[in-house]
Amino acid sequence: MTEITSMVITHSKATVEEIEEAWEGDIEKMLKDLHSLDLVCECAVLKTCNRVEIYVVSPKGSTVLFQFAKKMGLSSNIIDFFEHEESIMHLLRLACGLESMIIGEDQILGQIKDLYLVAKKLGTTGKMLDTAFSKAIQVGKRVRTETEINRGALSIASASVDLAEDTVGDLQNKMVLVIGTGEMGTLVTRALSHREIELMYIANRTYETAKDLADEMGGHAVHFDQIDENLSRADVVISATGAPHYVLKYEQIEKAMNFREKELLLIDIANPRDIDPSIDDIPHVTLYNIDNLRVINEKNLELRMEEAKKAQAIIDEEFELLIKQYKRQRADTLVSELYAQSYKLRVNEKDKAITKLGAYHTIGDTEKQIIEDLTHSIINKMLAEPTKVIRYAAEIGDDELLESVARVFIANRSNIKERSELLKCSPSTE
C-alpha cells in the first residue's frame, strides 16, 4: 500500500554533531535525489537546528528510507522510522511545538511552512503530503489559539540568553556580542533587548544588515572583520549564522584570551556549528551549544505540562479526522477509476449501437438522447452498490478488498507503463 513513511533524527536521540553529520547537501538536492528513486512518489524534508526529518510516500517506504540512511552512513541508534499513522501523529505534534526541544516554541511552525513550500515548488509533493502538511499547519495554528502552550514560550534563541544569565549572572553590566542577523540572530537580539544590557554588539558579513538590526534593537553594529578586537572585550558571545564553516576558530579565541583577564562565555546555536569545539579546551573559556539547552527545556516542560495535555487532545481529534480523510481519498480514487473505465466503455458501445441503427433508418436527436440516458442510467445503477462497498471497505480499513479492486481495474489497462505507474503511486496520490 502507498502511504507516508518518515525517518526522523532529532535532539531526543542525537547530539548536535550527529545531526550535522546527518545532513548532506542542500534541501533541493536531497529532495531531487529522493524523488528520483523508483519507489518514491512524493517526498518532503524538514531541517532545523536540532532535527532532520524525511517524509516519503511510497509502497515500500521503510525499505527506501533504510537504504537512504545506510547510503548516508547514519547509525540506526539515532534514527526513528515511523510508518503511516505514526508519521502523521509526529508531524501534527511537531507543528504544535510538542516535539521541540523548547516545548511550545513558535518558530517550528514557520519552519514547517517554509520547507513544505520548497518541496511543493519543486514538485516533489502530491495529494498525500499536501493533505498531511496542510493539516499540520492548520492544527499548529489551532493549538496556539486555543491553548497557552506558547505563552511566554522560549525559543532556542531566548533560551540561549537565559543560559548566558544562568552562567555569568546578571547581564546588566556585561558586553554581549551577537554574530549573525538571520532569523535566529534576530531572535537573540530581540531577547537581549528586553534585558538591561549595557552593551550589545551585532556583527554580520553585510554591515548594513547589522546596522539596521542594531538601530532597531538598541545595539551597536560591528564590521565582520572587527570581530577579533571585540572578542577581547566581550563577556558573552552568541553565534547564530548560517555559515557552512566555523566562524570562530581556535586561534582567534586563543589570541583574544591573551589580551583579557576575565572569563569568556561562548554559546553556539548554529547548525552547522559556528564555533570550533576544540575552543572549549582554552583556559577561562566556556563553550556551550544546543545540547546544553536541554536543561532549559526541562524547566520549561514542567511549566507547560497542563497546556501540553490540552494541545494533545486537539491533536488527537484532528488526527482522527485526517485518517478518515485519507480513507475517503483512497475510496474516491478507486471509485473514480471504476466510473472512468465504465463510462469509457459505455460511450464506445453507445456509439457502436447508434452507428448500427443508423444503417437501417435515420436516428434523430430524440432517439440519441434516449440511448444516452439509458446507458448512463444502467452504468450508474450497476456501480451504485460497488461504490457503497468500496467506501465502506475504506472506512473500516479493509485493505485486502481495496487492493483487490485496484488490481482488477488496473489489470484492464492496456498501457503497461501507465499500469506500472498507477500501481506504484495509486490510489492515494492520484
UniProtKB/TrEMBL annotation:
Recorded superkingdom: Archaea
Positions of the catalytic residues: C49
GO molecular function: glutamyl-tRNA reductase activity; NADP binding
InterPro entries: 4pyrrol_synth_GluRdtase (IPR000343), 4pyrrol_synth_GluRdtase_dimer (IPR015896), 4pyrrol_synth_GluRdtase_N (IPR015895), GluRdtase_CS (IPR018214), GluRdtase_dimer_dom_sf (IPR036453), GluRdtase_N_sf (IPR036343), NAD(P)-bd_dom_sf (IPR036291), Shikm_DH/Glu-tRNA_Rdtase (IPR006151)
Amino acids binding NADP(+): G180, T181, G182, E183, M184, G185
Segments forming domain Glutamyl-tRNA reductase N-terminal: 9-147
Record site feature (Important for activity), residues: H90
Residues annotated for substrate binding in this entry: T48, C49, N50, R51, S100, E105, D106, Q107, Q111
Catalytic activities: (S)-4-amino-5-oxopentanoate + tRNA(Glu) + NADP(+) = L-glutamyl-tRNA(Glu) + NADPH + H(+)
The entry's keywords: NADP, Oxidoreductase, Porphyrin biosynthesis
Occurrences of domain Tetrapyrrole biosynthesis glutamyl-tRNA reductase dimerisation (ranges): 310-409
Enzyme class, spelled out: oxidoreductase
Signal peptide: none
Record bears the keyword Kinase: no
GO biological process terms held by the UniProt record: protoporphyrinogen IX biosynthetic process from glutamate
Enzyme Commission number(s) of this protein: 1.2.1.70
Pathway field: Porphyrin-containing compound metabolism; protoporphyrin-IX biosynthesis; 5-aminolevulinate from L-glutamyl-tRNA(Glu): step 1/2
Pfam families, alphabetized: GlutR_dimer, GlutR_N, Shikimate_DH
HAMAP family registered for this protein in UniProt: Glu_tRNA_reductase
Family membership noted in the UniProt record: Belongs to the glutamyl-tRNA reductase family.
Domains (record comment): Possesses an unusual extended V-shaped dimeric structure with each monomer consisting of three distinct domains arranged along a curved 'spinal' alpha-helix. The N-terminal catalytic domain specifically recognizes the glutamate moiety of the substrate. The second domain is the NADPH-binding domain, and the third C-terminal domain is responsible for dimerization.
Primary role: Catalyzes the NADPH-dependent reduction of glutamyl-tRNA(Glu) to glutamate 1-semialdehyde (GSA).
Protein name from the UniProt record: Glutamyl-tRNA reductase
Organism expressing this protein natively: Methanolobus tindarius DSM 2278
